Amino acid sequence: MGNYENIRLWSLRFQLLLPMETLPVPYEVVLEKQISPAYHLEGRGRPLDHAQIVCTISGEGAFRLREKVYKLTPGMTFMAQLGDPDTAYYYPGHATEPWIFLWISFDGFRAVEIIREMNKRYGYVFRLPLDSGFVKHLESYKSPRGTLRFVTPTGGAKIVHDALASLGDTIEQPEMLSRRSKLIRAAQELITTHLDRSLDLEAVAHTLQVSREHLSRVFHAQTGITPGEFATQERMRAAGRFLREGNLNCKEIAVRLGFGSASSFARAFRAYYRISPMQYLRN
Fold first, then answer.
1. 127 Cβ partners below 8 Å, 6+ apart?
2. At a CB cut-off of 8 Å and minimum separation 6, what does 59 contact?
3. Which pick of 18, 99, 156, 270 has the fewest CB atoms within 10 Å?
């Protein structure tokens, strides 16, 4: 027990009161130090309902994903299901300095599902600045070693989601500032400020000084939908808002949203929401 405690520079464990099966559960946030080549954790045989995110603060560790081994130098971070047989992490035998790493773990199959989906989007290994929002977020939990914090099920789920949101923001921030992202945000702004007319993609592309083909290709790659689908989505969301506010009738909404008539608006509304505007209001 003494050796186990000595590797933890600080730690905070969460204890849930009456956990709910549908909510992810935070387990621990730990700053850990490893110096032993015997430290080697294989995913095979570990709990299937646990997930973990580990960020190297100093020194060097290693993470294996199938046949590939990643060097975990400062800022290198991995995210994985603990029981994934394709993964392992360890203190490499050639290392000369202690591996100090900050990690958070989650319990529950819901947490594992979230981590799997994030693996599909972001991968398993990525580099984060040590002054990033995610690292600072975990460091905000710094507590005397062995601290226990009692939380409610919803409070625990918030801890998990806040950590994952902070991680996602840190990873995506460079992409948000890229030229492609700026192009898509500009296109979305043009579309949403001209919902009173049918989408003229050629005109949008001309305004943004790119070709229609390039705009369509980048828009779909960045958002997963076409500019036309985005325009329809925004137009129908605006229609739903107008109906809920109750200040406009269907004919007036049709004019506001660039439809030729109330009947064409009603057909488009039904195609999107699967119910008529009047049924939408009643529901």
1. 75, 76, 77
2. 74, 95, 97, 98, 99, 100
3. 18
The answer to whether residue 27 scores a pLDDT higher than 50 is yes
The residue written with tokens 């509304």 in the block is 269
Q: What angle do helix axes 262-273 and 227-245 make, rounded to 10 degrees?
A: 110
Beta carbons within 8 Å of 178's beta carbon, 6+ residues apart: none
- Quickly count helices (H) and strands (E) in the chain: 11, 11
> Which is it for strands 99-107 and 68-72: parallel, antiparallel or unpaired?
unpaired
Identify the H or E element spanning 55. strand 50-58
User: Which amino acid is residue 245, in one-letter code?
Assistant: E
In 3D space, the residue among 78, 80, 162, 154 whose CA is nearest the CA of residue 116 turns out to be 80
Which residues touch 155 (CB under 8 Å, ≥6 apart)? none
Compute the C-alpha angle 63/64/66, nearest 5°.
160
At residue 22, φ and ψ (nearest 5 deg) are -85, -5
Stronger pLDDT, 109 or 177, i.e. the higher one: 109
